[in-house]
Amino acid sequence: MTSIEIFAILFFGVMGYLAVSHFLDRPASRKPSRGRANSGADDGRGEHDSAKPEGDAPRSWWEVLAIPPNASVDNIRQAYRIQVSKYHPDKVSHLGEEFKAIAERRAKEINAAYDEAMRSRGAAT
Q: Is the full-model pTM beyond 0.85?
């Protein structure tokens, strides 16, 4: 392959990428993934892993734990373990104090949701 052919492949590859990304990266045309509205609930897929912004209304325990409101005690425990493992402050301590503070807030929210869920089921935590 000659250097002109290699240059042409690289040039048109980059130009094609830029053209396609320009047309596909329009925010107005984006729709919620998987046919559901952005409810702010964390469903365990990492789509809503950010901490709740200050001033928002408190979320229900099933939204925090990302499970249905009629979940069993075993499902509540499993969801709690999954959520707390994602947001444990020790996992992000190397990233700095800001991330650690966010993780601590989120972990407190998860713990409170777990306690409320277990109280609603009459189970011991």
A: no
